[in-house]
Amino acid sequence: MAEVDHLAAERATARFDVEEMKVAWAGSRHAVHVADRMARLVASDPVFRKDNRTMLSRKELFKDTLRKAAHAWKRIVELRLTEEEADLLRQYVDQPGYVDLHWGMFVPAIKGQGTEEQQHKWLPLAYKFQIIGCYAQTELGHGSNVQGLETTATFDPKTDEFVIHSPTLTSSKWWPGGLGKASTHAVVYARLITEGKDYGIHGFIVQLRSLEDHSPLPGVTLGDIGGKFGSGAYNSMDNGVLRFDHVRIPRDQMLMRLSQVTREGKYVHSNVPKQLLYGTMVYVRQSIVADASKALSRAVCIAVRYSAVRKQFGSQDGGPETQVLNYKTQQSRLFPLLASAYAFRFVGDWLNWLYTDVTQKLEAKDFSTLQEAHACTAGLKAVTTSVTADAIEECRKLCGGHGYLNSSGLPELFAVYVPACTYEGDNVVLLLQVARILMKTVSQLASGKQPVGTMAYMGKVQYLMQCKSAVSSAEDWLNPDAIQEAFEARALRMAVNCAQNISQAASQEEGFYERSPDLLEAAVAHIQLIIVTKFIEKVHQEIPGHGVKEQLQALCNVYALYILHKHLGDFLATGCITPRQGALANEQLGKLYAQVRPNAVALVDAFNYTDHYLGSVLGRYDGDVYPALYEEAWKDPLNETVVPEGYHEYLRPLIKQQQLKLSRL
Ligand SMILES: CCCCCCCCCCCCCCCCCCC/C=C/C(=O)SCCNC(=O)CCNC(=O)[C@H](O)C(C)(C)COP(=O)(O)OP(=O)(O)OC[C@H]1O[C@@H](n2cnc3c(N)ncnc32)[C@H](O)[C@@H]1OP(=O)(O)O
Ligand SMILES: Cc1cc2nc3c(=O)[nH]c(=O)nc-3n(C[C@H](O)[C@H](O)[C@H](O)COP(=O)(O)OP(=O)(O)OC[C@H]3O[C@@H](n4cnc5c(N)ncnc54)[C@H](O)[C@@H]3O)c2cc1C
């Protein structure tokens, strides 16, 4: 704990029990305790130091990542950490690396798509790191369009093998994390060809490198795809390129839970939906939503603490200047992001519940909720990552000039986070998937089919298409029913408008294509409704701790009314609310910001992040920002010598030349 607390006055104004808010944020007392222990374990270990990361070369950074991963594994084994603890440790190490893909995609792909026998064979090897795996799906020529992948897996009945081949340059696998330098194996997605027929994309376990000396196996060409955006950041990851030249693998290395190829080469598809092939992506999209609240809360924690420390203007007579956090503009930019962090946290928890529920149903051969799982994971992944990426950049601006320094932690956080808008499904592509499901649901309304799950509100079509908001004062917007109804009506009317416009096109396909920008907005409205609904439901629950429920209620209202204000055009154009009601919402938002203000620092303290994890001199718990900034500057390699390298070669001759010219005048 800090010796001098420059934020003590801020902490003293909090009107709620911070320790209890930590429980609400983490999900349980147990979760706070475990997270705390793992965060401190990482923070106190010199191997996990990361303050020098942006100054390392790519090679040094990669080696540092290997070292950290090996050390983390050593500690996991020595301390006999549980899976929950090990995953938290991995998160607090906070450096993207091959282990993320090994645990996050390779293992889940085998679990989800491998038969029991295959799981029995491969998972123990993966669990003990006797093999290291990655997820090789994307190719140079195709990423979003999975059905367009070109790599082939042709069955050879003579030898009972598949021949894996990259027929073109564009079929080179391109992007898989961990592939470039670390992985020994990959789950490779390729077109299955048997008996001369192409059966589309399937997964195969392929060994890439020798388990003796790590050299590529015959027929395998692979390497890293090169430096990426920002210093440090995602450059710790060896995203790779991979080409196959007729590489042979045994038939039983095709992942055969969903479909099989017999010894004779017959293709047999089990009686399950083909989309289960995409199951690993659904799993990771769900975990990316949980991750969004972490990245967003980190950025917001830095910006709130620094805004409470930073002072500018306001004094005419030599008195103290104003904390920038007191400026209404700073509050109206920052508090919605604080509220969004909480909103994403709770919707992430709900999505995790949904995913677990769907998985259990799938085990029991009930596929009825597969579409709901796809729509929610795809849509929430798209909205939460886009908002978080923009919000990190906004937090950088909220920290003024110092936010641009690497030591603020924000540039690296942005650079490491922003590809989340692209990987695991480009956000536009994913939102169009949601839109397709919305259009399907609207078209089924006429036949009387009652939508279920997060689409259930569409069943109230008669009412929602004509209802008028009853809000007549700013306070009326604090009523969750008023908010819920406005968001439901907006989402439904936007979807119905799109469906009507599409129905006037020559074909459904052409209409969808022409109206895709509107469809994107309808999908966003639907997903925002889910986030608002889940926040309202959370606040309705019993929440222990002095003032905790009240603070969450205020944040829930901030989130909802901020979205309403930002997308006012949607609400007005669909006639859900009047311009006057829109103005009242904005008025209420201003009052809510004033309510959040004295609690802001305590609300970010509730995230319970160590200074190590935050990695920011501006976000320090003790608020002692200026000495830290000053000290940090001297650590830059450029300051190792007083006179810079290059002075004698370039600066001195230039200065001397100019001096000579002047002396001649
Ligand atoms: C002891 C130690 C322990 C340690 C413990 C650690 C444990 C945990 C660690 C976790 C760590 C996690 C960290 C993860 C790190 C993440 C790093 C990121 C790395 C990035 C990886 C990647 O990017 S992988 C590649 C991702 N690629 C994509 O996402 C491609 C996107 N494209 C698609 O998904 C598809 O092509 C498509 C959906 C856009 C189109 O599909 P298709 O061509 O089939 O056509 P349709 O649109 O017509 O769809 C047909 C039909 O299917 C339905 N559907 C589509 N997708 C799904 C789905 N996923 N699920 C269910 N249904 C789906 C669609 O709605 C259509 O339905 P109809 O009814 O026919 O209309
Ligand atoms: C850091 C990082 C890590 C990754 N890790 C992995 C990994 O481990 N394994 C793996 O297999 N892959 C990985 N990928 C690849 C990733 O999954 C793809 O990049 C992603 O799915 C997007 O596909 P794309 O690159 O083909 O984009 P494209 O589809 O080419 O997108 C280009 C543009 O076209 C637009 N667009 C595309 N299709 C449509 C459409 N139908 N309608 C409207 N607009 C459209 C997009 O919105 C985008 O603006 C990773 C990528 C990154 C950046």
Automatic annotation (TrEMBL):
GO CC term, one of those recorded: peroxisome
Main location: other
Record keyword RNA-binding present: no
Pfam families: ACOX, ACOX_C_alpha1, Acyl-CoA_dh_M, Acyl-CoA_ox_N
Domain (Acyl-CoA oxidase C-terminal) ranges: 479-656
Subcellular location: Peroxisome
Positions contributing to FAD binding: T138, G177
Catalytic site positions: E424 (proton acceptor)
Cofactors demanded by this protein: FAD
4Fe-4S is among the record's keywords: no
Keywords tagged on the record: FAD, Fatty acid metabolism, Flavoprotein, Lipid metabolism, Oxidoreductase, Peroxisome
UniProt-listed GO biological process terms: fatty acid beta-oxidation
Ranges of residues in domain Acyl-coenzyme A oxidase N-terminal: 17-132
UniProt cross-references to Gene3D superfamilies, sorted A to Z: Acyl-CoA dehydrogenase/oxidase, N-terminal domain, Butyryl-CoA Dehydrogenase, subunit A, domain 2, Butyryl-CoA Dehydrogenase, subunit A, domain 3
Domain Acyl-CoA oxidase C-alpha1, first and last residues per copy: 278-439
Acyl-CoA oxidase/dehydrogenase middle domain location: 134-235
Any one Gene Ontology molecular-function term assigned to this protein's record: acyl-CoA oxidase activity
InterPro entries xref list: ACOX_C_alpha1, Acyl-CoA_ox_N, Acyl-CoA_Oxase/DH_mid-dom, Acyl-CoA_Oxase/DH_mid-dom_sf, Acyl-CoA_oxidase, Acyl-CoA_oxidase_C, AcylCo_DH-like_C, AcylCoA_DH/ox_N_sf
Family, similarity comment: Belongs to the acyl-CoA oxidase family.
Name of the featured protein: Acyl-coenzyme A oxidase
Species this protein is from: Zea mays (Maize)
Source taxonomy: Eukaryota, Viridiplantae, Streptophyta, Embryophyta, Tracheophyta
Gene of this entry: LOC100382424
